Amino acid sequence: MAMNLASSGRSGRRSRRAPMAEINVTPFVDVMLVLLIIFMVTAPLLTSGVPVELPESRANPIDQTPDQVTISIDVGGTIYIDDVRIAAGGLPDALARIDQGGGASGPVIVLRADKALDYGRVMAVMGELNRSGFNSISLVTSGSVTPP
Known about the structure:
Blueprint: H1 26-42, E1 56-57, E2 68-73, E3 79-81, E4 84-86, H2 91-96, E5 108-113, H3 119-131, E6 137-139, E7 142-143
Parallel strand pairs: 1-7, 2-5, 5-6
Antiparallel strand pairs: 2-3, 3-4
């Protein structure tokens, strides 16, 4: 509760202060910088949550597009579509539920497979992708500095 005690301490003078018209933006900038750092650190971790030991390659990196579908195969052979585990034998049904966009190209399929997997397992998944109408498949590898 505030009171105006103009007569106490001063002899009849009233001090009027002008309202402060400036906004202190320093705390706002500090918070924004902290948020920027947090997003910069966590953004690379959000690409795919399935832990896969990728094989090495000297291929150039591809651009990520918003209409891509990531299919991962872990070391045990379990298949994931965008971090959702697919039951054994359920890959054809899961691929049928993916919207192909009505265009000729459809979504970009990005295949991540563990390097310890059998070649036949990866080819079986690629064959099923082809059978479902996904003909443009990008294989993800980790970078390598030595040529094969």
